[in-house]
Amino acid sequence: MDNINRIHSKEAYQDWLTRPITFQMSNIGSEVSRSLKWTAKNNKPRADKAIDRALELFDFTIESNIKNHARLTEILKARDEFCDYFFGDNTYHTDPNKMQKYYDGFAMIDALRPK
Length: 115
What we know:
By secondary structure, this protein is mainly α.
């Protein structure tokens, strides 16, 4: 968390580290959704901000799951696909609707989680 130019507060970061993976991935999904929406509407400033927030949440999630190899592999693949879609040549041929459905699954599971 010592990196400069963080979007989220140190308190939000500390809280993030204690959250279940379904919470983390569903919140990343919210930013993915915003990224897709603003990109489709050609609103680059808002799309860029949502992309930046998503990437920061990916980084937090990677850090909080660093010791779980299987989970870490999944998170890194999701981040790679996200980056390839927005910054690369979309070599994975990612469909934005399918990408959104992936994260929606985490949101549905998280909604069922006892609070």
